[in-house]
Design brief:
The protein is mainly α and 139 residues long. The chain has one domain (4-138). It contains four helices and no strands. The protein has helices at 4-31, 39-65, 73-96, 111-138. Helix 2 runs antiparallel to helix 3 (73-96) and helix 3 runs antiparallel to helix 4. The radius of gyration is 17 Å and the shape is elongated. The protein starts with a helix and ends with a helix.
Length: 139
């Protein structure tokens, strides 16, 4: 059973999906040529949009079951909040590193993507191990 804090965060994440939806509208404008974008920008905008949506939905799924994990303190926080944090960092890395007029390579904001990768990996490993341990303990 999710905690009240988890339920609040799930609500916030669902509302955040509305922003991803508006990003989809922006992408249709880019693809139709109504917003100028080069290949790098088109690729990074698509990747940022996709990562945001997938990671937000994954966050909801994890929060729905994380109360069954054998975790507490920092580890429970990482397992619960890590994927939502990655859902901010990774898309931000894609979008911000492709800003500017006709960029040919990602700019230094690409570090946000890699920070998100580290947080995502740590959160998924922690949640996975904690849920397995919680399941085994419940047998």
């Amino acid at each position: 059973m999710p905690t009240p804090n988890d339920i609040i965060l799930i609500g916030i994440l669902l509302l955040a999906l509305v922003t991803v939806e508006s990003g989809g509208y922006f992408l249709t404008k880019v693809v139709r040529g109504n917003v100028p974008a080069n290949r790098l920008q088109m690729s990074f905008f698509r990747a940022g949009h996709a990562h945001a949506a997938v990671l937000l939905v994954l966050s909801v799924a994890i929060l729905a079951v994380i109360s069954h994990a054998a975790l507490d303190g920092f580890w429970l926080w990482l397992a619960s909040a890590g994927v939502p944090v990655a859902a901010i960092l990774m898309p931000a890395g894609f979008f911000l590193s492709a800003t500017g007029r006709d960029p040919q390579r990602p700019n230094p904001f690409i570090w946000l993507l890699w920070a998100g990768v580290v947080v995502l990996t740590a959160a998924l490993i922690t949640a996975g191990v904690g849920l397995i341990a919680g399941g085994v303990a419940a047998l």
